[in-house]
Structures are given as structure tokens and as C-alpha cells.
Amino acid sequence: MGYDIGWIIPRLRNPGRLWYCASSITVAVVGLFSKIIIEFLNKTTVYNREALTAAVRRPRGTPLLTVSNHHSCFDDPGLWGVLNMGTLTSRARMRWSLAAHDICFTNALHSCFFALGKCVPVVRGAGVYQPAMDFCVERLSRGEWVHIFPEGRVNVNKEHIRFKWGVGRLVAECGAAPLIVPVWHEGLDAVLPNTEPYLLKFRKHVFLNVGEPIQIHHLLDKLRSANASEEETRKAITDRIQEELLRLRDHTHKLIRRAGADLLRPRARERDPPPPRDTDRDL
Predict the structure, then answer these.
(1) Which pTM value belongs to this model?
(2) Per-residue confidence at 173, pLDDT binned at 50, 70, 90?
(3) What are the structural domains, with CATH classification, of the chain?
(4) Which of 61, 220, 248, 272 has the most CB atoms in a 10 Å sphere around its CB?
């Protein structure tokens, strides 16, 4: 039996003053660490940085959902090392992020650290209706920022993985249509390889491409007009986000080749995603 994570989400919902202070320190320290790794000890090229900056500085009360590919265990927090210091050190402005319970929340020490860093333990395979997803819907509805890796796991082989429908639920059940910003990155798996001894590397080149916000309002209106079921709604939203993120991937690869970087290794042969089965059990 794994470590009992039942206390984490209630604590995240009702953080005491001591917890809030400890969380603020954790967010700031991890943010500064990420910036040192990404911008000082490695080289990072960011395309369309202003789109990410504008999203983080969105009007108060506007929910923000960022989605990205997942190539390394350093993707989060590494991705956010490109943000300014004011954002990185602000607990109120930084993201909530879904993290695998069987990797990040395996004992009391790890659980405290990741929970203080605004990570939410998601149980893979437990479906779209689980406490972590409920919590993230609540955060979005309050106008906060949530980040999700729709592939649902570290995609070590960079193959085609059908996105999990959890991202569709976050959008569908948010109180107001969130600002959805896609991000594609390459090179973070060179900074933290997916092989032992899992040590950070330096003097690598990372590319980060921020897409324009995904326009979802017309799709939501169409689904409501058609009286679509919850499953149909989740699938349609997820398909749209996957389509936009993969389009951003192709654009990113063109930019990397244009820059002359020897970074893109041959990817596994892409194939169409299999038809959905009972995806509510497949978050």
C-alpha cells in the first residue's frame, strides 16, 4: 500500500498561516532554482515569450490553463524558469500543477515538499472524477492558474500519445471559459535525462515556444447548442487542445531546424490515436 495522500488536498484547500508561509518560501526557492538552471547554467531560446507574460498578467479573476508536452521530470518547474522574478517568487501568481501521486507523493517528506510547491497529487487511471481534478476545477473557477500535461506521463520516446480527457473536464466545468495557452518545449530532457543517475546537466540548449491562446468559446457554444453529453464535451475539447498543441509542435520543430540546432532526434512513427474506450478511467 502506498503512502496515504488523503490529507493533502484538504490542506491545500485550507492552508493555515504557517503552511502558507512555508509554501511561499518553497515556491520562491524552487522558482529561483529553476531560473538559475534554465537561464544561467543552460541556454534557453524562448519564442513568443510575450504571450506567456500576458497570460500570467491577465485581468484579475480570469482563469488560466497552460498545457504542454512532457519530456522530462524537470519540465515543471523548468518551464517556468523563463518567467520574471516577480512571478517566480509569488505564491499567489504561480501555477498549480498536477503531479503523479506514485512519483512525487511517495512519503511524508516528498508529499510536503510538492504540496508546498503547489503540486496536486493525481492518481493515474482513477478517471476524470477524482479529488485532484475537482480541486483544479475549483482553482480555475476562482481565476487561478493551473498547468497540466495532457499526455498523462513523461513521454520518454516522444511518441504520439492520445491526450487524456481530464483536460477537457477542466475547461468544460470551469465557471468561465479559461484562457488556454499551449507551450511546446524541446531540450529539457537533455537538462535532466530520463536515465540514471538522473543528474542535472549544464550547457544544453532548450527551446520553448509559447502559442497564442486557444480560442474555445465557439466550440463551447456549439456543444451547448447541440446539448452534447459530458463525455462528448470532454472529448471535443480535448481533441481541439491536442490539435493546437501538435500544430505548435510542428512550428517549434521548424524554428529549431531554422536555428541550426542539432536537437531533434528521430521520433517514433506517428499514428492516429486509437478510438477512445472508457476514458473516464484513463486520466
Answers:
(1) 0.92
(2) very high
(3) 8-260 (3.40.1130)
(4) 248
